[in-house]
D-lactate dehydrogenase (cytochrome) (Aegilops tauschii subsp. strangulata), 800 residues
Amino acid sequence: MHVPIVPYGGATSIEGHTLAPHGGVCIDMSSMKKIKSLHVEDMDVVVEPGVGWIELNEYLKPHGLFFPLDPGPGATIGGMCATRCSGSLAVRYGTMRDNVINLQVVLPDGDVVKTGSRARKSAAGYDLTRLIIGSEGTLGVITEVTLRLQKLPSRSVVAMCNFQTVKDAADVAIATMHSGIQVSRVELLDEVQIRAINMANGKSLPEVPTLMFEFIGTEAYALEQTLLVQKIAAEHHGSDFVFVEEPNAKEELWKIRKEALWAGFAMEPDRQAMITDVCVPLSRLAECISVSKQLLDASPLTCLVIAHAGDGNFHTFILFDPSQEEEQREAERLNHLMVHTALSMEGTCTGEHGVGTGKMKYLEKELGMESLRTMKRIKAALDPNNIMNPGKLIPPHVCI
Amino acid sequence: MHVPIVPYGGATSIEGHTLAPHGGVCIDMSSMKKIKSLHVEDMDVVVEPGVGWIELNEYLKPHGLFFPLDPGPGATIGGMCATRCSGSLAVRYGTMRDNVINLQVVLPDGDVVKTGSRARKSAAGYDLTRLIIGSEGTLGVITEVTLRLQKLPSRSVVAMCNFQTVKDAADVAIATMHSGIQVSRVELLDEVQIRAINMANGKSLPEVPTLMFEFIGTEAYALEQTLLVQKIAAEHHGSDFVFVEEPNAKEELWKIRKEALWAGFAMEPDRQAMITDVCVPLSRLAECISVSKQLLDASPLTCLVIAHAGDGNFHTFILFDPSQEEEQREAERLNHLMVHTALSMEGTCTGEHGVGTGKMKYLEKELGMESLRTMKRIKAALDPNNIMNPGKLIPPHVCI
Ligand SMILES: Cc1cc2nc3c(=O)[nH]c(=O)nc-3n(C[C@H](O)[C@H](O)[C@H](O)COP(=O)(O)OP(=O)(O)OC[C@H]3O[C@@H](n4cnc5c(N)ncnc54)[C@H](O)[C@@H]3O)c2cc1C
Ligand SMILES: Cc1cc2nc3c(=O)[nH]c(=O)nc-3n(C[C@H](O)[C@H](O)[C@H](O)COP(=O)(O)OP(=O)(O)OC[C@H]3O[C@@H](n4cnc5c(N)ncnc54)[C@H](O)[C@@H]3O)c2cc1C
């Protein structure tokens, strides 16, 4: 009897990761939520996989520490490992790949594997930690995670700046990265996204392409960096550069940003969203966003653009009525075109959301059949009966 | 006919990685040394695996860029990937794990695999890039590498400070990391190492435990960080805090540091060195070094201590006469004791040098048999005839 097993965390994943196309047992990990040990001196913490990143950060705050990954509100550490997620702070702190020290994983045959020690770096054997990160529940169930933590910065400044075109905004994001300035966030929002945010939050932000920056560090440093970026923005027709330093105001801004998707729903309440997630080399970002924006503007559907611009990663929320087949098809067409645009620029079909079922069809074009065959060989070696989250990540047509 | 294949880069690896215990063909990769394409705008470069990191940095300098991994002089990018190396700058920029975007790898069956796109982040399937990094030539031959580059900092300051004990020095390194100060290097050298450096380089540095720091960034920032560390050092009996800002003087200091091993040989020319490489959680570093130092001081052999202290990683060079069996045994005994001390502190037997043949015997204690079995399953899936660098990394007693 080979019953499929589908691990289930916060269920905020986007590409059908937690569906059960072959039936089976869904293991809800959300009750395994103990924080097992905090090592303040080592800046690490050992947690069970069901802990949410928001809860974890509440727990860490009094210790002056935080965990810098911020995917969907409700996401769990286990799900975040399994999807190799990132978020707005990845430009500074990296993705889940870079912030996990050690995992405990139950393999399909019942073996309980420890993937590392608690040392910050190690060259002891194959990197099983990174193999599990991004494996989307197809290789085993993550039952314990040791996370690398960061100091809460003593100082942070949020800056916002308006532009005439998304291209100008993207160019400033790129130029900022090139200048060597260390931003901790650089998020791009198009005019449609800003309009949605205004509607959902009763705000009156200028409805134009906008960059939101965060700078951290000591007072002198944050100020110095901010002024450098202001100069770059001015060189690209940026206007209305504003700073926010008051803690509640900053928190509100990031909350609004994090809830951008729901703002979209507030604008068109009966719609669903197709969420795209391409990522391209930084030098191609402005072009990739511009090309995409032309497509989106020409579509009858409402489309919002939001980018983790410092990483070359951007999302669009394409709002469609699921009862209208042609709207669904149109949303798929736009997603598809954007993926192919990104792939033609040496980019990826998924910067951070993962493969699930939705992105399987693009992997061969992105990585080649040899690469997929290698993945399938690893899958078959660790899960010969294909019980772990079957039907995900590896396209069905791959043979070993 | 299953002929073993041993890839061979700069041959600077330390744990017997390039030996051929089962005979076979050694593939010298050092002539594949083209720099294939530099993308200044994306801060990445595509190279063949035989390029050395020193040559690469000479090539990059006029473009204002550099690659921040600095293992043994002579090491090649392919070998550095294969050993998952790091170096003095890892405290700021991470290890090879964090600085490779994409690999091309020839697998044992001849499949040529591309492990990623050129996007900076991606969640597209299993992380084959990280699986190959650290695989020590046991899974395939790396034939092309896309590396992430960094801006050459506009400003850097090197600071040196003297201490009465290695514990004081280690405590200052730890306190510096905890303070959130962003050092780019923090290296600890014991009094024996300093003596060797003085002898080899005609210097007259005070022969006491010493910390060498590097701070980078803008002028204001580097200065601010330096002063903060000076304060921490003063609180731990640090003395003679000196700054070096003149480019040639800084370069000389890092060159001397990089050549520390040869300085050891200058002190005792007819000896060989047993090089140890443990890494522990940061909070245990001072204790681990102190315990080790007692052992070393009590030994008849000359032992030099040198640490990448910000990562919790330290090396000792144990000088012994290979013709004297008891000296060799004594060196092994010291190495062995240090590994076990580190493992008892949740550390690793190898922070950066890798497993080769030398560290195989410690992996079961560090990671458990389940973990090794998983590695062996992966190895068997990708290299069923065990032709790639057989006899390395996975201990021979592991069964699948
Ligand atoms: C509003 C919104 C904003 C978002 N923003 C971001 C963003 O900025 N960046 C980003 O990267 N993502 C973002 N996401 C996507 C999502 O939050 C992430 O993919 C997140 O990592 C999923 O975590 P989860 O706990 O919800 O996982 P789930 O959805 O429950 O599961 C995801 C996958 O992980 C597996 N899994 C879950 N738990 C385990 C376990 N313990 N062991 C093994 N496998 C397991 C599941 O089988 C499944 O394949 C966003 C989503 C929403 C709704
Ligand atoms: C003085 C000195 C200082 C050092 N300092 C450091 C340090 O600070 N940090 C650190 O991490 N290390 C350090 N090392 C160790 C060493 O430099 C590193 O391990 C380095 O990464 C080895 O690279 P290499 O090109 O010399 O590899 P080699 O020694 O040639 O090979 C190492 C392994 O990689 C495999 N390999 C080589 N090329 C390929 C390829 N193209 N494809 C697949 N497999 C391949 C080989 O089969 C072998 O298993 C130091 C060494 C010395 C001598």
Observations:
- Chain B is about 35% helix and 20% strand.
